[in-house]
């Protein structure tokens, strides 16, 4: 009886590959084939590794320095913008305060004018005097300042000239009379001072000053006249 050709050959069964990460027998983590290859690869020489690390470190340090310089420039620019903003806000706050105070105090100027006229005519007495002085004190605390005096130089920025004349007593355009005082708050003019001004008179001759000899002669003449009057009085007696 002849044997079949398949009987002399081994039959191949199914192939089972265990890909479990944990070895069920030892309980340890199995290494993959790629990891074995990497671990088996020869290590680079120490000099080459140090050189590569040093080159990478220098490049990173330069990049960090550049980034740091950019951030510092950004901070300086931001600080300058904030400082300018704060100064602008402070300036606007002062301007708004002066404007609001000016609108309120402008309504008191006619009352202050009446108080000033009453003082000039010696009519500021009694209770009216106390009220007037209290009102002037309160407005002064709020920053209201009165200006305009006789003899001060004329300034068209703060004075309003209503009358003009020539005078030999002034050497420059000056205020010779204050018709209505001016008021201001800080640099803000609420009302200019209305004044009469005078310019130097070009035709007026300067007053001649007596010389020292003339003064002596005049004093001697006065003494002689005084002696003569005394002598005449004695002769009459």
UniProtKB/TrEMBL annotation:
**What segment(s) does the record annotate as region Disordered?**
1-62, 192-237
CDD domains, alphabetically? Answer: GrpE
* Keywords from the UniProt entry: Chaperone, Cytoplasm, Stress response
- Compositional bias, Low complexity, is annotated for 40-51, 192-220
- Compositional bias ranges of the Acidic residues kind: 1-10, 221-230
Biased composition of type Basic and acidic residues is found at 11-39
Residue stretches spanning the membrane: none
Q: Which family does it belong to?
A: Belongs to the GrpE family.
Q: How does it assemble?
A: Homodimer.
**Is the Transmembrane keyword given for this protein?**
no
The answer to whether keyword Zinc applies is: no
What name appears for this protein in its UniProt entry?
Protein GrpE
A Pfam family the protein falls into: GrpE
Superkingdom classification of source: Bacteria
List locations, semicolon-separated.
Cytoplasm
Query: What PROSITE patterns does its record include?
Result: GRPE (PS01071)
Record lineage: Bacteria, Bacillati, Actinomycetota, Actinomycetes, Streptosporangiales
- Cited function: Participates actively in the response to hyperosmotic and heat shock by preventing the aggregation of stress-denatured proteins, in association with DnaK and GrpE. It is the nucleotide exchange factor for DnaK and may function as a thermosensor. Unfolded proteins bind initially to DnaJ; upon interaction with the DnaJ-bound protein, DnaK hydrolyzes its bound ATP, resulting in the formation of a stable complex. GrpE releases ADP from DnaK; ATP binding to DnaK triggers the release of the substrate protein, thus completing the reaction cycle.
């Amino acid at each position: 009886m002849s044997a079949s050709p398949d009987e002399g050959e081994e039959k191949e069964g199914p192939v089972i590959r265990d890909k479990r990460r944990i070895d069920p027998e030892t309980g340890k983590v199995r290494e993959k084939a790629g990891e074995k290859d990497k671990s088996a690869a020869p290590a680079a020489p120490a000099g080459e590794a140090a050189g590569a690390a040093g080159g990478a470190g220098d490049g990173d340090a330069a990049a960090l320095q550049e980034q740091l310089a950019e951030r510092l420039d950004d901070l300086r620019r931001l600080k300058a913008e904030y400082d300018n903003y704060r100064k602008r806000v402070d300036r606007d706050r002062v301007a708004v305060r002066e404007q609001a105070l000016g609108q309120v105090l402008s309504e008191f100027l006619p009352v202050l004018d009446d108080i000033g006229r009453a003082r000039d005519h010696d009519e500021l007495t009694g209770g009216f005097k106390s009220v007037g002085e209290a009102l002037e004190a309160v407005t002064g605390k709020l920053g209201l300042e009165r200006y305009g005096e006789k003899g001060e130089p004329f300034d068209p920025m703060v004075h309003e000239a209503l009358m003009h004349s020539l005078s030999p007593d002034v050497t420059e355009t000056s205020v010779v009379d204050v018709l209505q005082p001016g008021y201001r708050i800080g640099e803000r003019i609420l009302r200019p001072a209305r004044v009469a001004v005078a310019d130097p008179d070009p035709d007026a001759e300067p007053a001649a000053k007596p010389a020292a000899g003339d003064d002596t002669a005049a004093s001697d003449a006065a003494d002689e006249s005084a002696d003569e009057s005394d002598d005449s009085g004695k002769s009459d007696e």
